[in-house]
Amino acid sequence: MAQRRSLAVACRAPVLAASFLACVATALELSVNNHAADFTLSTELGPPISLSCLVHNSSEAEELLWYRGDGRVGLKEGNKVNISNICISPVSESDNGVTFTCRLARDKSVQVSVVLDVQFPPQLSGEETLHVEEEKDVTLTCNSKSNPQAQSTWLKDNQSLTLQQSHHEVYQTSEIFRLSIKKVQKSDNGTYTCVMESPLGRGTRDFYLIVEDKKPVFPTEAVIAAAVVVSITILFGIVARKDKIFKVW
Question: How many CB atoms lie within 10 A of CB 150?
Fold first, then answer.
């Protein structure tokens, strides 16, 4: 009896192993542009790019879905079964960092994603003239994006600007480069240039800062106070002479 059990187990083992290998061999897989796993695709502005999703190990028709981020991409009939293509045209700055995902319709856990790495130089140009009164604060702002991120600096009259701790303040994010000047003086007059440089190019923007004489402050409070005093004086005068006024009338 014990011998028969051993034979039974020994016979089942190859059958189970064969079944497991058959399942592994026929497991459905997807690939995007020949990548079976998630990947990053580097590209540049302008020229369109195509993403092709293909079903592997399929013995029947399998529907495919495309997503841009969390949003579903509309596909035409005939572009959904076993192979599906989408085109991004033209490639723009807004496509940078966006994830495109191809999924199997009946099992959305089967998927491959591609992240677009759109590279572009700093896009910065133009000029601006700013008039500011002496002793007032002023802020110069450069708005620019680039990939890879650009190195930023400020020039004054084509020379590197020496930042003074209590007078200048610099603020920077991936899209903003800002210079604030506190209590401007006549010595702050000049041309300020925002410079952004990356391996792909260089962008500049000029600011012409004109510091004007400080205007005399109009004594508004004093005038209002004087007007109130005069009004009250006139009112008391009328009250004091009301009898004479009534007699005249």
Answer: 23
Name 96's Cβ contacts closer than 8 Å, sequence gap at least 6.
Answer: 116, 117, 118, 120, 147
Domain ranges in the chain?
A: 27-119, 127-212
Domain 27-119 and domain 127-212, same fold? Reply is: yes
Sheet holding 190-198, edge to edge: 127-133, 201-212, 190-198, 151-156, 159-160
Model pLDDT, residue 179: 96
- 228: which 2 tokens? 């109130």
CATH number of 127-212: 2.60.40.10
Residues 6+ apart with CB under 8 A from 153: 160, 161, 195
* Region 177-186 average pLDDT: 96
pLDDT single digits (tens) 46-103: 999 999 999 999 889 999 999 999 999 999 999 999 999 999 999 999 999 999 999 9
Helix ranges restricted to H, the chain? 2-25, 220-240, 242-248
pTM over 0.90: no
Token representation of residue 68: 């841009």
- Residues with Cβ < 8 Å from 135, sequence gap 6 or more? 183, 184, 185, 214
- Residues 6 or more apart whose CB falls under 8 angstroms from that of 47 comprise 90, 91
Is the bond leading into 121 cis (omega within 30 degrees of zero)? no
Assign domain 27-119 to a CATH class.
mainly beta
Please name every residue paired with 72 in a beta bridge, in sequence order, or none if there are none.
67
Lookup: tokens for 158: 């084509």
